[in-house]
Structure to design on (120 residues):
């Protein structure tokens, strides 16, 4: 199981790095997944990720419980409400799938609102 978590952490880190350059791939959730995998499998990789000059600041506040920057919350919520309704109403034909996408957007927004915030 340890090797599976290490491999999943490495893959999540790689995809998170790609997500920095490609806006369709979510960077921070993938890095959080990598941190969770590394926390359970490799202290060395976990520390490397949290102390990394570029990647560490993106997730350190969430991991240590101090919260995420308000600007990041606003950006994430804005992106959710720009992209999901476009997909739901311009691309998707099935009504049940539209409702599901909007419900997911509401869930993501609620989760982000209730996360602890910190000023930059």
């Amino acid at each position: 199981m340890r090797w599976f978590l290490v491999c999943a952490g490495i893959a999540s880190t790689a995809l998170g790095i790609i997500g920095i350059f490609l806006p369709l791939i979510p960077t921070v959730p993938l890095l959080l997944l990598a941190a969770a995998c590394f926390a359970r499998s490799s202290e060395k990789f976990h520390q490397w990720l949290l102390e990394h000059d570029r990647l560490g600041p993106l997730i350190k506040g969430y991991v240590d419980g101090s919260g995420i920057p308000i600007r990041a919350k606003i950006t994430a919520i804005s992106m959710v409400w720009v992209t999901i309704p476009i997909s739901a109403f311009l691309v998707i034909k099935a009504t049940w799938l539209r409702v599901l996408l909007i419900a997911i957007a509401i869930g993501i927004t609620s989760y982000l609102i209730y996360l602890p915030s910190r000023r930059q």
